[in-house]
Amino acid sequence: MTRPAPRLGEVRTHRRIVFSGLGALGVAAALAGCAGSGDGDGDAGPAVDSGAELASKSEVPVGGGIILTEEKIVITQPTEGDFQAFTAVCTHQGLLVTSVEEGTIRCANHGSSYDAASGDATGGPASGPLAPVGITFDGDRILAA
Ligand code: FES
Prior knowledge:
The protein has one helix spanning 24-30, and strands at 16-19, 53-56, 65-68, 73-79, 82-87, 99-101, 104-107, 112-115, 121-123, 135-138, 141-144.
């Protein structure tokens, strides 16, 4: 069976999850099976080999981002052509963040938020920033540094 292409704002429950304006409540429901269940199973940080392909630039929406659930990395594009990457592990209780929209990385598990450009915590209960993850580029490809 062929899977239809995702529509704008639709969550792809695949290895990569794209967010571009989906409400936090819907995202939380969609991620119930992959972002942990509150038992802290998302507390290990990113573990990828240098040079591993993470995504293509075209997959990362401007003003939004993608969350790589297996790699536990969130890649954002706060402004066109500016790509940033951070651990997707929330600094509150170690669960995975759940969405990226309008320049904000959100963790709907308990309501924390982070600046998509810097990773700084902008709303509690998390008080610490998301750690940056090094990335490099090869054409349209985004690679782990
Ligand atoms: S684990 Fe993210 S807000 Fe609690």
